[in-house]
Design brief:
With 119 residues, the protein is mostly beta strands. The chain is built from no helices and 11 strands. The strands form 2 sheets. Strands 2, 4, 5, 6, 9, 10 and 11 form a 7-stranded mixed beta sheet that branches. Strands 1-3-8-7 form a 4-stranded antiparallel beta sheet, with no helix packed on it.
């Protein structure tokens, strides 16, 4: 059973930075697409960024140039560096692992970490 544990959330002022971490229970990065999603209060969960097993990254337009997704294979940990944060980035951020082989529907979520951007 895959387990994902997020950390690093908190309260930050607009323009500030945070780095989120997602620790995985095993060596997932070679076969799972790893991603970050977020859900603001009263809104649907939305995609933020992903990292494929092949190393390709993808971002939602609203965070391009401000957020960077990365991973440390040795530590089985994925990161989301968030710079120039805005109040609209306030949300619970979730780590996601989705099996990359077509037809496999294995998908896992972390418990989420709160990010609040406010002065």
């Amino acid at each position: 059973q895959v387990q994902l544990v997020e950390s690093g959330g908190g309260l930050v002022q607009p323009g500030g930075s945070l780095r989120l971490s997602c620790a995985a229970s095993g060596s997932l990065f070679s076969i799972y697409t790893m991603g970050w999603y977020r859900q603001a209060l009263g809104k649907q969960r939305e995609f933020v960024a992903l990292f494929t097993p092949g190393g390709r990254t993808q971002y939602v337009d609203s965070v391009k140039g401000r957020f960077t997704i990365s991973r440390d294979n040795a530590k089985n940990t994925m990161y989301l560096q968030m710079n120039r944060l805005k109040p609209e980035d306030t949300a619970v951020y979730y780590c996601n692992a989705k099996h990359s082989i077509p037809g496999r529907d294995d998908e896992y979520w972390g418990q989420g970490t709160q990010v609040t951007v406010s002065s």
